[in-house]
From TrEMBL:
Taxonomy, superkingdom: Bacteria
Originating species: Paenibacillus vortex V453
Membrane-spanning parts: none
Protein name, as recorded: GntR family transcriptional regulator
Domain HTH gntR-type, residue spans: 1-69
SUPFAM superfamilies, per the entry: Chorismate lyase-like (SSF64288), Winged helix' DNA-binding domain (SSF46785)
Listed CDD domains: WHTH_GntR (cd07377)
UniProt xrefs under Pfam families: GntR (PF00392), UTRA (PF07702)
UniProt keyword terms in alphabetical order: DNA-binding, Transcription, Transcription regulation
Length: 239
């Protein structure tokens, strides 16, 4: 194991076990270098890694401090609008529409939407921000055969659930959610303002109108894993 990785592991252990509390100041690079008898550049590399992993933050001219990882956002998977959940939790929330564009034929998406190759399908991308920080990227794939004005209206959509409601779809349910972990691509790093070391939680699912059984959308959501805690509700077994 490299010397900088040993420093990273030590501070992660100390932070997780409470030796360092949120907003505590870490020793300076020189102090750590002297303590472990290693070059200062090795310590700087370790501190850079800790920063990219979301464990510490810097104050200009003052040093490095422990980030409060307890102030993370609870993520509960449900049929409730993500926007509505964030607002109900009291966060300073913003949803920004960043594109609406027609996609080329994609077998998986077209099959999920239950449409033929002749139907135009659009993807609508929204960036989710808390306190001005990008935390998630939502992409919704919808068929023009279901929403005939999507090409014109898609660029104004910031909440798909609000859009559904405006079209008379008020009772809907999510399909089975597929969850995976991925490291961000270059464009995703730029969009979510994160390093390549921050894994993304990727959720893929769909939305179906309960009354008609019509498939409304296929959804792919990328969440920055360092900004969320994940809530799993316990199941209740019969006694």
């Amino acid at each position: 194991m490299s010397e900088d990785q040993e420093i990273v592991d030590k501070f992660i252990f100390d932070i997780r076990t409470g030796i360092y509390e949120p907003d505590d100041k870490l020793p300076s690079e020189n102090e750590v270098a002297d303590l472990f008898k290693i070059p200062r550049m090795t310590v700087r590399k370790a501190y850079t890694t800790l920063h990219e992993l979301g464990y510490i933050y810097s104050k200009q001219g003052k040093g490095s401090y422990v980030r409060n990882r307890q102030q993370q956002i609870p993520l509960v998977l449900s049929n409730v609008s993500f926007s509505k959940k964030m607002i109900e939790l009291g966060f300073s929330y913003q949803s920004s529409n960043i594109f609406c564009e027609q996609i080329s034929h994609n077998k998986k998406i077209y099959q999920f939407l239950q449409v033929g190759e002749e139907i135009r399908v659009f993807r609508i991308g929204r960036l989710r921000l808390i306190d001005g920080r990008p935390i998630a990227f939502h992409i919704s794939y919808v068929a023009e055969s279901v929403f005939d004005d999507i090409a014109a209206e898609g660029r104004q959509i910031t909440s798909m659930f609000d859009y559904y409601n405006s079209k008379g779809y008020t009772d809907y349910t999510s399909t089975t959610t597929e969850i995976s972990i991925a490291f961000p691509s270059k464009s995703e790093r730029e969009l979510l303002e994160c390093s390549s070391l921050i894994p993304l939680l990727v959720l893929e699912s769909g939305c179906v109108d309960e009354r008609t059984g019509k498939v409304l959308e296929h959804t792919r959501v990328l969440y920055r894993s360092d900004y969320f805690t994940y809530i799993i509700k316990p199941s209740h077994e019969e006694e």
